Amino acid sequence: MANTLERTRDVLGRVLRDGTAVASDGTVHDLFPVAISAAEGDSLRRWVQREDARNTIEVGLGYGVAALFVFEGLLARERSRAHHVAIDPNQGTRFANCGLQLFEEARVNNLVEFHGHESQLVLPRLLSEGRTFDFAFVDGNHRFEGVFLDLAFLGRLVRAGGIVFVDDYQLPAVARAASFFLSNLGWTLEQSSASDPSHHWAVLRTSTMPDTRPFDYYLDF
Questions:
Q1: What is the CATH number of domain 2-205?
Q2: What is 144-176 written as a DSSP string?
């Protein structure tokens, strides 16, 4: 684990320094501002460690930068059974498999379970399999219905009182979707970054209480 952590930090440091990635097809990709910033990544890593996470899940792998920060947090705990699920239907097209390539460079690919399909198809399948996770990172479809579905399924997949770290909270659709869970399902806002036009993020904690709402319960959000 120590060697893998060192390798992960080396790869992460390089991509943060260079800001680019060369895909296996030879195309050069500018990582930022699509990928999260170093400041957001540092917070993401700290939350993974703080929650003592072992099994993590990510919607929207993209260039893989956020996932490397997640792995830094997982491996810092010397997790021999660390496991990360990454979901991204655009990995082989829009991102030219750069995220998966970074996993190989960091030598964490054996700890990754990748799904190249839309999250609204993958998440309910994981739920039907009885899967559970300690921590989730959401940076996928940024339309309201996409974010809402991601949060609805992750609310059942992530352990009670677990963390769902949401990127791009500056987008009205993202913040609006999250507000339903804060208003109606007893989720709490644990932390929110300073306003940022590119990457405003928020840390949500799922409820620890059983859902006992009556069938007609609803609070405007």
A1: 3.40.50.150
A2: HHHHHHHHHHHHHHEEEEEEEEES-TTSHHHHH
